[in-house]
Amino acid sequence: MTAPATGRVPPRTLPRRTPEVDILVDVLQGERFAGAVILGGPGMGKSSLVQTALEISGRTADVQTVQCSPTLREVPYGALTPLLATLPNLTTPVAVLRALQQFGPNPVIVVVDVQHLDAASAFVLAQLVQNRAATLLTIGTGSLGRESGIAALADTGVLSTIRLEPADLQQVRRQCTGVLGGPLTEAAVRTIRGMTGGNPRLINAYLASAHDQGILVRSPKGAALPGRPAPWMLLRAAPDPDGRLIDTVEAMHDSLLPGERETLDLVALAGWAPRSLLRAVAGEHVHDLLNAGFLRAGESTDTVGLAAAIHAEVLRARIPPGWSFELYKRWHAAGGDASEHRTARSVLWALECGQPVPLSEIMDAGYRALQVKDWPTARAMFPLLSESQDPRAALLVSELMLVGGRTWAASTELEELTVRTTDPNLRLEALSLLALNRVRTGEAPNPWAALPALMAELRERLPQHTVTPASLATMVDMLVNDAVHLHRPELLEQAQLLVDDPETPDFTRAIMLLMQADALAMAGQADVAISAAERAYELASTVPGFSARFGLDALVYLVLAYITAGYTDRAMAVLSDQLSLEPRQWHQRSGTVLVLQHLAETADGTPLQGSTWLEDAVVELRNHDPAQMLPFAEALLAPQRAAVTVGLPSPTAEERAVRIPCGPESRWLWSLALFSIAEDRNPDAAELGPPLWRRILEDPRLEQDPIIRREILLSLILMRDPLDLDEAVVEELHGTATATQGPRSAGIARALDPSLAGDPRGLAEAAEEAAASGAVLPAALCWSRLILLHHRAGDLRRRGEALRRLKHLQGRAGVAFPPYIAGALALGELTAREQEIVDLAAQGLSNAAVAERLFVSQRTVEGHLYRVFTKLGITDRSELRELQF
């Protein structure tokens, strides 16, 4: 880490030239404005901006500084007192104006914390500005009061207004990279942005504290690809509040009014809070705190929360118990304990203040905290719940122990709860948590794979006369069966009975829906799979208990169902919501979400602007892989790894195949096949028998998952040189795609229709239809087949026409196509010199003019154009315009 030995991060300095600096330099050097108002929250770099502009403009010697404060805002000329301290008492504006002339012609007066400027001083400074007797630079948080004379000058354009907003993701990335001296993962940048609200001062303190506490580290296993620097990553979402963070927050609060500090303390203690309640308890300060960047509005514009999650945690750590209790009494008197205002934080606050809270509310708060991965709040609930004898409280305690790393104690308690409870639904929940724990520890690929072994282990200990609904008992019996994978239709039928039964609890129904979504999506039954996945995802959004346990699984199955069916726009919409999660929840899901984001973005090809999200996902999943997505992520990265690796990768696909499966079996087989296909392109690969991907395609387990077969075959085609393509693979893929549902299968089946193999008109029509519907990959496949058809026939003109259409499709889609399509494009690829000449000729320049521009002979230009005409099958110079992209 590029920091002094003390571990402290160097203070942020604004770049020498930014748009804001340029505006301020223009103010100091020009005649358009008489000064500027610089607004932004504490720590946003306002003082650095002013200092930078003063140095660039050469006016540092002319500066007089006025420091405002809350204590002097009601004292006439209180802010100007330090400037006039050596002069006799001055009580009139005229006398003050004359006294200020001692600083010479047109001084620069910098007013700090202008929001606290007293009215008399504001009037005098406004007069100076209007008379062009001084250049005024004012620095403030939030917004200026409308009664202020400074605000009036800004409104009329006498003063320029510059507002510094919180740093966006790119700015946070640049700041962190500069401080740490190396790149960060996308997940880490987004977590830091969420935890700090983009406040540069908080970011510096956060980085230093996280580094000192050992949670901000370079990836222990290095980068995802060889030759790349190991990125910085976060082992957990936030450091503990320490002296550095507390000092930073207190410094940010120094300029606030008492009522503003009270408002922030209230929001820190209560969580998201209605403005009306905050107004009733602490006065009307929300508007100014929103403008200052301390608060942000919630989904409901009536509620507000702290803009930086770490800010809230630091405030809670420094609020004395006595003051917390006093605020709670006022909060309670204003109606803050009403059910519609309850948050997980407010329930914990009430408990900390010794107030009685029903167990049901405590448990609901605990699950809501787990839902958003608010570990500090969830952990604080633990001792309060441990005192209860309620078995459902014991269930939640076990969940809290699991997330806290006490897996052995939690597993023991869950097993005992499974045996002693008489509630079949509670038993199923306990078993599900045990199954989830085995998934997290790598003992099972998914929860339903873990259930049979668990049931077999515990069945002898279960009471003989356990009352279990018949439908649920049947499902349990089927899951315990060792050959459960051979009875998928019966299992799905029984799951549907449970889903349709109105007596089935939401938790059980959600589990059945997830099972259906997983199996049906891979079986190619897109419509019913998506319906089940959407219902499960809705439950995950509305039932905190289910969300805390299976919310991530619901997300994975829904997005995969959308992508494999061909509804990538729906998948992207769901994933875009994930990018705005609360920072702790984002941190827990980040690796999984980034893999899914990559899969959705690359469904039709790799974006031309490129993306390192998949590499970052692999780095994050190596540390935390809650949905068992790491093998799949590494498989998706395998072609890139093969391109930069000398010799066979380690481990090879064959070595991976003998390991314990990780993740659902269908996804595991898909991953192994992708590894094998990538290795096939390696010259060091030895062919001692059928390749692994072929053995997987012949594996009977894949018969139930035609979508996996489809994707393996499609990857096999797309990763090959088009001139080496095995038509038998094309026919096999066409048959598989024809038998499965969804626009992706329909597009592939149409593009690879064997009847179009020798039909130029049919291929062109299919390409146009696919492109018109937005199906980029099928359209590209059709154009590629048409290019190859004309290439083999030696029809260069028609080949050129198809090449140009494919190139236009690529330009519109903004993607880089995989090797099969890229290989078809390469048949008409222009050299750099040819493209340069084409660009000039297409602008209307003659051959002689092009030759003169490029300092070559006219004969050279003519020769290049002849080769272009031949290569692309064009006969008219006007057609060159089609070659510009």
TrEMBL record:
Residues 823-885 form the HTH luxR-type domain. Keywords: DNA-binding, Transcription, Transcription regulation. Pfam families: GerE. InterPro entries: P-loop_NTPase, Sig_transdc_resp-reg_C-effctor, TPR-like_helical_dom_sf, Tscrpt_reg_LuxR_C, WH-like_DNA-bd_sf. It comes from the Bacteria. This is LuxR C-terminal-related transcriptional regulator. It comes from Citricoccus alkalitolerans.
